[in-house]
């Protein structure tokens, strides 16, 4: 076993697992395994490093201990860089971490990386005009539940009630989103796109009855989108989502809210930087 490489650590105190104790445990584990933390960025207080800064520091490995949204920003910043990126579980859902490492604890992942036993991958991700989704993308009026999630994060109980009522109204009242490749013009309040190496899996969530919708809403509030009632529409290399009324619609790219055109194309592309993986399957 060779010496563990120097790393540049990026963290975000606002992410789900980034409290002082969690960060200290991570740094201790890195030291135990022989990693030297050659640089550290606390985002968003500090600017993210680019490839040139990392090369100048002699660092070829970046460890990202943040949520999926910040991971997206970092990988976008490093697109085309010749080094490697290690994703660690520093957020709430850690979707990309689980895709790359399965259910391994981060201590085991670090041990495998230090031993040189991790694989280098450029997994399939979702590209569109609004950005690149590494972990997943949500589209439709149902993305108004994002505001409920943010209010819950702030601990505003009254705000949760008000924003939840608004989200329900918007989701039931607004026209839905259709997937053209699925051969249906039916509109759904929420469509979830999940990238895999072999294609983009499309799941459509619906609200045909109040009870069904409330079940879906509770799943969204718990950030467990897959638990809501849904239809699996298929897996595609390229697909088009369109609003049924011709108006722009909301999307969430790795948890960050954006707005799409009335008709938007999504395609499977390769990640722009090498990621380390310890799981056997996508």
TrEMBL record:
InterPro entries cross-referenced by the UniProt entry: ATP-NAD_kinase_N, Diacylglycerol_kinase_cat_dom, NAD/diacylglycerol_kinase_sf
A Pfam family this chain is assigned to: DAGK_cat
GO MF annotation list: kinase activity
Protein's name in the database: DAGKc domain-containing protein
Gene3D superfamilies linked to this entry: Probable inorganic polyphosphate/atp-NAD kinase, domain 1
Domain of life: Bacteria
Residue ranges annotated for the DAGKc domain, each copy included: 7-117
């Amino acid at each position: 076993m060779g010496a563990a490489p120097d790393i540049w650590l990026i963290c975000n105190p606002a992410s789900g697992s980034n409290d002082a104790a969690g960060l200290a445990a991570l740094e201790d584990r890195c030291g135990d395994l022989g990693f030297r933390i050659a640089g550290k960025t606390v985002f968003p207080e500090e600017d993210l490093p680019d490839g040139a800064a990392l090369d100048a520091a002699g660092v070829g490995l970046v460890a990202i201990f943040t949520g999926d949204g910040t991971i997206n920003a970092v990988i976008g910043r490093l697109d085309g860089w010749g080094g490697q990126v290690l994703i660690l579980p520093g957020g709430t859902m850690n979707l990309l971490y689980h895709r790359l490492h399965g259910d391994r604890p981060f201590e085991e992942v670090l041990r495998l990386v230090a031993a040189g036993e991790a694989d280098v991958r450029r997994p399939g991700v979702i590209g569109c005009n609004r950005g690149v989704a590494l972990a997943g993308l949500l589209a439709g009026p149902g993305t108004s539940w994002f505001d409920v999630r943010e209010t819950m994060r702030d601990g505003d109980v009254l705000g949760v009630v008000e924003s939840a009522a608004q989200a329900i109204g918007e989701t039931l009242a607004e026209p839905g989103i259709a997937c053209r490749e699925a051969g249906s013009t039916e509109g759904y309040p929420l469509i979830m796109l999940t990238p895999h190496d072999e294609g983009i899996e499309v799941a459509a969530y619906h609200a045909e009855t109040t009870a069904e919708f409330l079940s879906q809403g509770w799943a969204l509030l718990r950030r467990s989108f897959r638990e809501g009632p849904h239809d699996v529409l298929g897996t595609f290399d390229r697909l088009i989502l369109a609003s049924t009324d011709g108006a722009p619609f909301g999307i969430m790219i790795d948890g960050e809210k954006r707005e799409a055109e009335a008709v938007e194309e999504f395609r499977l592309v390769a990640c722009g930087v090498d990621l380390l993986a310890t799981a056997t399957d996508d």
